[in-house]
Structure formats: structure tokens, C-alpha cells
Amino acid sequence: MPDFDPNSAECFVYTFKDGLLSAVAHDLKIKVTRFTLKADASGVEGRFDARSLVVAAVMRDGHEAAGVLGQRDLDKIAKTIREDVLTAERHPEIVFKSERVTVAEGGDKATIQGTLTLAGRSKTLTVEARRAGARWVSEVVLHQPDFGVKPYSAMFGALKIKPDVRVRMTLPADRISLNGAS
Fold this sequence. Notes:
CATH architecture: Beta Barrel
Number of helices: 1
Strand order of the largest sheet: 1-5-6-9-10-11-12-15-2-4-7-8
Number of strands: 15
Radius of gyration: 17 Å
CATH topology: Lipocalin
């Protein structure tokens, strides 16, 4: 299977604000900076370092909003995510292993069923992937409490993050062969 890492692929986690004080909170685009991924028609296996998450951008209305927060604030948020939300020192590795990959006729869509282990808990999930130009794009919504992860909350819950986060991964399509499609 071909290998991918942050030099050839991208992995982002999107969080969404919630609560009474959501007007002063921020949706975030978080980048996973250390991971390895093997993917082809026979299977997918990914290993993601929970200690490598950094805030890539603040999001407004689905678009990156530059200059909203300074680097010190972004670093503090990332540290809170790693240490308090994900307990990354205790559970440093997030692992996904597929059990089945089903490629649609035409080879431009795939359904990947597997097990994700996050924060020491495992759950079966289905990931949809589609070819978008020169990239394969997969997205999945994760419900943090399913993995024992308590979404960030402050000010007695008036400022918090929704329990569902979206994970988006892109890979170069020319390095993956799915039933003869590349």
C-alpha cells in the first residue's frame, strides 16, 4: 500500500461553537501535523498523533478568517485541545483500520468501513470518500462523547464546542489504485 504523511496528504478537524456566548467563540480548523496513512483498494490504515494538533485557522461562515486571534491565543487553544480535551499524553495515538473498502462503479467513490480508536475507546464507523479532481477527499463526523471525549466547555457551559466535529482528509489520487482507477 502507498504511504502518505503530511508531506503528501492533509488531515483537518473542524470544530463548531455552541452555547449562550457562542457569539464571542470561534469555529476552528485544526491541522493534524503528524500522521501516516496507507490506502488502496484492499484497505486503509491511519495513525494520527493526537499531540500534533495545531489551530490552522479561525473559521467564519465556512471560510478562514485571518487575524481574528493572535498566535499566542491559537497556541493556547491547541494546547487545551491536546491536554484537556483529548488527553493526548495518556492517549497519544488515534488509529483507524478498515475492515472493508467498497468502490462504486466508475471508481470515483468509495465507502470505507472500519474501526477508529480515539482517547482509548474504539468505535466502528463508515467513511465516504470521493475523487475530486486530482485528490481523494474523505469526510466523517465524529461525536466526541462516543469516544469518552468531553467537548470543551467554559463559563459553566455558556461557552462550548458542539459534540460533533468534522474530520476531512485529502490524498493525491494518482498514488492510489482503486479497482484499476487511479
